[in-house]
Predict the 3D structure of the following.
Amino acid sequence: MKFTTTLLAEVQSTLSMFTHNKIIEDLSDNHIHRLENIVSMNIASHQLFNELYLWLKPVKVCSSFHSLCCPFLYWLAGYTTQVLFVCSSR
């Protein structure tokens, strides 16, 4: 599938509303295959994440910490709700 410049600009604009402005640059070429782009989760959580019922929200105290969020708090019962992203490749 070939993307037009207009479509790519729209995607970049949409992504920049949810993350930093250099997201396209960070995910271009082989940068997307970095270990820090891997998130492991069980199949149920993966399905909720894919359907946007489960998401991560940055914690203001530290950029490496994120809160696990969902529309129904009881879904998180038994889960750790704070996630720390660690990267050892830098």
